[in-house]
Structure formats: structure tokens, C-alpha cells
Amino acid sequence: QVQLVESGGGLVQAGGSLRLSCAAPGRTYDMGWFRQAPGKGREFVARITWSGGATYYADSVKGRFTISKDNLKNTVYLQMNSLKPEDTAVYYCAASPPGNGGRWDYWGQGTQVTVSS
């Protein structure tokens, strides 16, 4: 069973930055970040194709968050700038194996991000 492990969460003031990291299971996986705030469902944040050639973002984070992938290290990053209190959530890394229609088959345990006002 593939297990993803996120790191880099923490407490930051509004306007600050954090960078999340996640070890990818392999170079041919599309990778994504999701988040779940207290009392809410899990929502999509960002996605990057296995080659790194395409990225997609939720409207709420466009222009503030950047997803990137280091295929030499098999690591995906989420650089979060200009953080807002509403970004407070548990952030999850997810992996989509090649050829499965974009389904997210593997998930990490999550890392807490708390943004204080």
C-alpha cells in the first residue's frame, strides 16, 4: 500500500508563508493537494501533472499558492503565500496513478495549517 507523508504545516500569521512537502510514490503520478477545514468537506486545492507540464488551482488560492514537483526527488511542494485565516485546514497530499482516469488513489495523513489573524 502506498503511503504518502506530508510535512511543513504549522502556525503562521495572516500574510505569511508556508511550504508543504510530500514524497510522491513515483515519477509518473499526478499529484494534488486538498484541504479540509473544521466542519467542512475536503476540497481541492491544486494539481500538477506527472511531467510538471500543467497545473490547476482552486479559484480561492490562485495567485497565492504554487504547486511544483521535483522529479529527481519524487517530491511535490505547495508554496503558500499571502495566507489568510480562511486557509486554516488540514492539508492532504494525494497521488493519481497513470492510466486510472485521474482518480486519487493514495492519500497522506494530513498536516495542519493554522493561520492566525
List the helices and strands and how they pair.
Blueprint: E1 6-7, E2 10-13, E3 18-23, E4 30-36, E5 42-48, E6 55-57, E7 65-70, E8 75-80, E9 89-96, E10 106-107, E11 111-116
Parallel strand pairs: 2-11
Antiparallel strand pairs: 1-3, 3-8, 4-5, 4-9, 5-6, 7-8, 9-10, 9-11
* Overall average residue pLDDT: 93
- β-strand percent reads over 45%
Helix content: under 10%
* Shape summary: globular
What structural class do helix, strand and pairing data support?
Answer: mainly beta
- Rounded radius of gyration (Å): 13 Å
Low-pLDDT stretches? none
Give the end-to-end Cα distance, rounded to a whole number of Å. 39 Å
Extended strand count: 11
Number of helices: 0
What's the story with the biggest beta sheet?
A: 7 strands, mixed
| Secondary-structure element series | EEEEEEEEEEE
Based on the model shown, name its key terms.
globular; single chain; mainly beta; 117 residues; four-stranded antiparallel β-sheet; seven-stranded mixed β-sheet
Please characterize this protein's 3D structure.
Helices cover 0% and strands 49% of the residues. It has 117 residues and is mainly beta. 32% of the residues are buried.
Short description:
With 117 residues, the protein is mainly beta. It is built from no helices and 11 strands. It is globular and about 40 Å long.
